[in-house]
Design goal:
Agglutinin, subunit A, single chain, 304 residues, mainly beta, 1 helix, four-stranded antiparallel beta sheet, 2 domains
């Protein structure tokens, strides 16, 4: 399977829904839910243990590097494309989170170089032969870094190089986040969901895509079942829970443009939960799947 880019998730149903406006994409209905295991809020993205490719090591054609928690895998595909996948249920679909776009080069491989650069070479190519198809650009001669290609327990694939510029670290930003999105406070300044961040429940993935679109994909077949329709942003778009209870997508341009929101402002302490039934729901502070108090939902509980 060729993975050209991250999917835009504009299936006909979503495209026809004109989701680019600033009103909720679904009605504020208290939809049926299935119990979801208790999920904690998080105070920020953490890495944990890592799977590593050190200088001089390769990811050969057809080889796979698994994250320690096996929530993602990095695959050097036979078609020459290096792809990071989110893993779902055994035997089910996998979701492409990032790729080099180097398909069409059978036999290509990836190499972690001593100079700190991580490069995809065509078959028969190499540092002394040429044939580079893609690279992180992290090469240099620093001696105070630990060059390597790392796949962390939170799913993120990143490379630490030897460059003296700020680019000595390159990352996909594909960090797995908690399925529960809570408000930030001065005591607990939670990181927003940044482009590339993703979360999951038992049945769906949710991705804050780099094109500015927030999309829910079902694990049964990898198809998109909901999106905010906010693709095409020129600047970074991130997801936050406002202290007033509104779930917000904001573009970080000069005007801090509001691109989408759940329209649940006025419910301080509200949180959003990606549920095992496939629904993404904003609940009031004292609510929950087994307590009621739904303020807004995506209406995707019957689409898994």
């Amino acid at each position: 399977m060729h993975v050209h880019t991250l999917r835009r998730a504009l299936v006909p149903m979503l495209a026809a829904s004109a989701l680019t406006c600033l009103v909720p994409a679904a009605g504020a209905s208290a939809a049926p839910v299935t119990p979801t295991a208790e999920v904690a809020c998080e105070s920020g993205a953490t890495g944990g243990d890592v799977a590593i490719k050190r200088p001089g090591e390769r990811l050969a054609s057809g080889e796979t590097l698994n994250s320690p928690r096996r929530n993602t895998e990095l695959v050097m595909q036979a078609d020459g494309n290096l792809v990071l996948y989110a893993l779902g249920n055994p035997g089910g679909a996998k979701l492409p989170l990032w790729s080099t776009g180097t398909y069409g080069n059978p036999g290509a491989y990836a190499a972690m170089q001593e100079d700190g650069n991580f490069v995809v070479y065509k078959k028969g190519g190499g540092p002394d032969k040429g044939g580079a198809l893609w690279a992180t650009g992290t090469y240099g001669d620093r001696t105070d870094t630990y060059p390597g290609a790392y796949l962390r327990a939170d799913g993120e694939f990143f490379v630490e190089g030897r460059s003296y510029s700020f680019t000595y670290v390159w990352t996909t930003a594909a960090v797995e986040r908690s399925a529960k999105v809570c408000e930030a406070t001065e005591e607990d300044p939670r990181w927003p969901w940044l482009p590339g961040n993703w979360g999951q429940s038992a049945t769906v993935w949710m991705v804050m895509q780099k094109d500015g679109n927030l999309v829910i994909y079902r694990k049964s077949d990898g198809k998109a079942i909901w999106s905010t329709g906010t693709y095409g942003a020129k600047y970074r778009v991130d997801l936050t829970m406002d202290p007033k209870g509104d779930l917000i997508l904001r573009e970080r341009d000069r005007a801090e443009t509001l691109r989408w929101h759940s329209n649940t402002e006025g419910s301080k302490g509200a949180f959003a939960l990606l549920q095992d039934d496939g629904n993404f729901v904003v609940y009031k502070k004292t609510g929950g799947p087994d307590k009621g108090g739904a303020l807004w939902d995506t209406g995707t509980y019957n689409k898994i």
